[in-house]
Specification:
It contains 20 helices and two strands. It is mainly α and 497 residues long.
Length: 497
């Protein structure tokens, strides 16, 4: 008669669990090694910069965590997390939770890739950029929204792909995760498109599709109505037109289209500013002080109706100078795949997202931390190690571009990939990354931190693409549709143009 495991001594249960963990680690030795290295780097970062890396943009997030209300510039998804953590500890808890969350999501991603039939060594390599990349590590230690946004999107992809045909709860959960990502950074709004297409590819049914779209749309509609109750317009943020104007102002030529008289002050003059200059320079950017006639105003706030007028100007510039706009967007999209993370003329400095030996905090952030009882410090030897590490600890851009191409080839069903059953997964990871990267530079300036989604999505797309091109298949066969007595295999996704 076998003894009840629950009645075994605690020491025996601990030894049994330890032995099982060792066996699992040995069976996944490469992934275990990479995770151990990733944990070690995060410990070094935690000891090097205390309590956290606080950038100037961190202050609005922290301030809004107290009030939790819609703000003009950014939605309130990230302040919700900050509010929850602020009740449990100081600033040092925030990067700790972000580090742990990143490690947890990478384990989920690894498990998802194995479930999809990717070989262990290939799935481990797909996890390496998030575990070891210095920019990822830096942004996890920053009080910034980018890591939360990245992890929500990755979780949505994993939930949607966990089964060949997701159930209604999985579809709804993926939609809710994408809504959370959008309320963290609105650029995730476009990620619902490939998710919807994946459900159509696998013939998941109208009920699951409605569950995902509903779970995605309802939180955003509620937030937009809340925004309207405060600012008078239905939106997630109020600066969309402001950002789009800054995007086009460096090349806009008012001689090529008709500009209303009140928008004439928005016409750029020489010498041109950078995108960042048109976006934030109160002394030099015309967007901050031009006058909008009362009949053209929507909402009562000057920043709001100026942003709307500037957006109208920008759309006219794009309509009449489409090649200039496409050239600008295409250049900045490809910049994300540059061999090194340098800074070109007119760009936001890449040093903002790099480790520094000198004290990295500016006066406003220092003042904020000191007012809240946090005393920042830098361990210079450890900071010097991280500064040196980031010179080699990064994912080369051409490698990520190759990952995107391989993922798209798998989605297109080239060769053996046509019968692999992995085309939808290749499509979801590669197209989601590409669309969000394009959207980020289409409506705003290029910044290296906006490239973060490619670190978690494109290596996974490459692993799936290689598996599909080599004739690999999903480990788990597709189940029958509950509404149909006959099993329906996953159809091939349409070719990606």
């Amino acid at each position: 008669m076998t003894a009840d495991p629950a009645r075994r001594p605690a020491s025996d249960r601990v030894r049994s669990a330890g032995a099982a963990a060792v066996r699992t680690a040995r069976g996944h030795w490469l992934f275990s090694l990479l995770v151990a290295l990733g944990i070690a780097l995060r410990i070094v970062a935690t000891l090097a910069y205390r309590p956290a890396l606080v950038f100037i943009d961190s202050i609005p997030y922290l301030n809004n965590s107290v009030h939790l209300s819609p703000k003009p510039l950014r939605p309130f998804g990230y302040p919700v997390l900050l509010r929850a953590l602020s009740e449990a500890g100081g600033l040092s808890l925030i990067p700790f939770v972000q580090h742990v969350a990143a490690l947890a999501v990478i384990v989920l991603l690894y498990a998802t890739l194995l479930r999809l039939g990717v070989r262990r060594w290939m799935a481990a390599l797909a996890a390496a950029p998030v575990l070891l990349d210095a920019m990822q590590l830096n942004l996890e230690h920053q009080i910034m929204s980018d890591v939360q946004f990245e992890l929500f999107v990755a979780c949505a992809c994993c939930v949607l792909l966990w089964r060949p045909r997701p159930g209604i709860w999985a579809a709804g959960g993926a939609g809710l995760l994408l809504a959370a990502a959008t309320l963290t950074r609105p650029v995730a709004l476009i990620a619902i498109l490939p998710a919807v297409l994946v459900l159509l590819f696998v013939r998941a049914g109208i009920t699951r599709l409605a569950a995902m779209v509903g779970a995605f749309a309802v939180p955003l509609l509620i937030y937009a109505a809340w925004f309207h109750s405060i600012f008078g317009v239905y939106a997630l943020t109020g600066y969309d037109g402001h950002f789009l104007y800054a995007r086009v102002a460096p090349f806009a030529n008012c001689a090529k289209f008709s500009v209303p008289a009140y928008q004439r002050p928005l016409c750029p003059t020489e010498p041109r500013l950078t995108v960042d200059g048109y976006m934030w320079s109160r002394r030099r950017s015309p967007i901050f002080d031009f006058s909008v006639p009362p009949s053209m105003r929507h909402g009562e706030q000057p920043w709001l109706y100026r942003s709307q007028a500037a957006g109208s100007f920008a759309r006219q510039a794009i309509l009449h100078q489409p090649l200039s706009y496409l050239r600008t967007v295409g250049h900045d999209f490809l910049r994300g795949f540059w061999p090194t993370r340098n800074t070109q003329s007119g760009e936001v400095s890449a040093s903002r997202w790099k480790f520094q030996v000198d004290h990295p905090w500016r006066r406003p952030t220092l003042t904020y931390m000191q007012q809240h009882g946090d005393h920042p410090s830098v361990n210079r030897p450890l900071a010097r190690f991280l500064e040196s590490y980031q010179r080699v600890g990064y994912t080369p851009g051409p490698l990520l571009f190759a990952a995107l191409v391989v993922g798209l080839l798998g989605a297109a069903g080239i060769g053996s990939a046509r019968r692999s059953g992995l085309r939808s997964a290749c499509f979801l990871f590669s197209v989601s990354a590409a669309l969000m990267l394009i959207a980020s530079v289409a409506v705003s300036q290029f910044s290296w931190r906006y490239q973060l989604p490619q670190l978690i999505l494109l290596p996974a797309a490459a692993a799936l693409g290689v598996t599909a091109l080599m004739g690999g298949h999903r480990v788990e066969p597709a189940p029958a549709d509950p509404g149909n007595h006959d099993p329906v295999p996953e159809p091939a996704a349409p070719a990606v143009a």
